[in-house]
Each structure stands twice: as structure tokens, then as C-alpha cells.
Amino acid sequence: MTGWEEYTLIQKPQQLRKISRNHAVPLSYHLGLLGMPGFTAYCGLYELCSPKAGEFVFVSAASGAVGQIVGQLAKLEGCRMLTSKMGFDAAFNYKEEADLDAALKRYFPQGIDIYFDNVGGEMLDAALLNMRVKGRIAVCGMVSQHAVTDSGPGIRNISNVIVKRIKMQGFLQSDFLHLYPRFLDHVTAHFLAGDIVYVEDVDDGLESAPAALAGLFTGENIGKKVVRVVPPESRNSMN
Question: How far is CA 136 from CA 90, 123, 128, 130, 132, in A?
């Protein structure tokens, strides 16, 4: 991680990865689709959840940097997914649902085999009620908890992990760095074949960074939030 700055001095260059530039892939995609968000999606889905064709997959925050990739990878495996925009099967806006349990029962009457959790809180609680026996939950993020100032009611349906024999595991993409070359080949090939689309939400100028960051916690972004420090015309003049 670096600061919000135009130039950065890296103390441990071994932590850097040289990009093999393919002009068919936008350079900024190495911050998202082919970077940490994409790798997080890949590891959580394949290493923790082992998706199978015909299974029902629910991804919270499915339009975000990680969620949009999880959904498309699951579809490529023959799973049934939420939201049609990226080839998924259905979608709902959690902000418009008074009863999350009822919403999940409406969209997943058969139950959920895989839940990729980016939200936590009430969404996780509702998902636990709707998991199928031997379901899998990859706990990637808890964005609902970032601005919480009190303990709240907590997760009430955790006993379903026992009753339904659910596998629930938190993870970091850094646990799986040995898989990065395999991920890069897999996702790049699908992107170039047109099997995967990727959405970015770009703001210009370093001064836009604070508002861009704040917007992540209020759901204002669609896709990967990127702050472009150098305008395209300036970058082209440096090449």
C-alpha cells in the first residue's frame, strides 16, 4: 500500500510486480480485474468454495470491484447468479428491501450453495438462514461494519453453521500468492475472449481521492473505484 501521492518511494522493491503489458487490456485493469480485487475474487471462489455447475451463488455487493468478478467466474462454472447486467441471472438492491430474509427466499427459493460475503452484518445474518446443507461462505469483507459506532444486535443465526454443516471461512488474498500466475492466465484469457467484462468508476485528480474513498462506504460506486492522477493526454506525452 502507498500513500495518496503522485510519486512513491518503494522501500521493498521485491513486493512489486512488473506488468507484462498487453494493449488489449487497459493499464488500470491491473488495479482491479488483474490486480488485488480480481485475485481476491478468484481465491475466495475457487479455493474456499469450489463451485460446481448448477449451484446457486449469492454475492453481496455484486457490482463492486470484487463482487462483479466473483459473479462472472461463477457463471463460467455453470452456477446460477444474481444480476443480469454482467450475465448474471437476477439482482436486488438491498437498500430497497425491508426484509432481507424474504428477498433471499424470493430469489433463492431452493436455497444458497455459495455465499461470497463482502458486507457482513444483517446481510450475512439473512444469508445464514437461506444456506443449503453443506453450503460454503467465503468471508471477504465487512463493509457494513466500518462505520458502526455501537455493537448492535450481532449475528443471530450463526447456529445454522452447525445445523446445516456450513463451511464458513475468512481469508486474505495474500494467503494464496503462489496461485497468482495461474489466476493471471485464467482471467486474462477469459477477458480477451469476451467472457468477462469489467466496470470501472473513474475520478480525475488526486484531490478527488477523499470523496472517492468515502463513497465506497455509502455504495456510491459502480465497479472498481479508480482515481486517475495523470490525465490521459499527459500520460500519452510521456510514452
Answer: 20, 15, 10, 12, 9
27, three cell numbers: 493499464
Residue 9 phi/psi, 5° resolution? -95, 115
Residue pLDDT, tens place only, 26-49: 888 998 999 999 999 999 999 999
Task: Check if the beta carbon of residue 44 is closer than 8 Å to that of residue 38.
Answer: no
144-168 residue pLDDT tens: 776 666 766 778 999 999 999 999 9
Give dist(CA 220, CA 208) in Å, integer. Answer: 14
Which are the contacts of 215, defined by CB distance < 8 A and separation ≥ 6? 221, 225
The single-letter code of the amino acid at 38 is G
- Indicate the fold that domain 26-198 takes in CATH: Rossmann fold (3.40.50)
Distance (Å) of CA 177 to CA 19, 70, 137, 187, 238: 16, 18, 21, 15, 32
Angle in degrees, 0-180, between the axes of helices 180-192 and 67-76, rounded to the nearest 10: 80
Kind plus residue range of the DSSP H or E element containing 102? helix 100-107
Give φ, ψ of 8 to 5 degrees.
-130, 135
Q: Say if residue 152 is exposed, middle or buried (CB neighbours under 10 Å; 0-12, 13-18, 19+).
A: exposed
Rounded CA-CA distance 60/137 in Å is 11
- In this structure, the chain runs to a length of 239
Compute, in degrees rounded to 10, the torsion defined by CA atoms 208, 211, 213, 219. -130
Domain borders along the chain are 26-198, 200-239
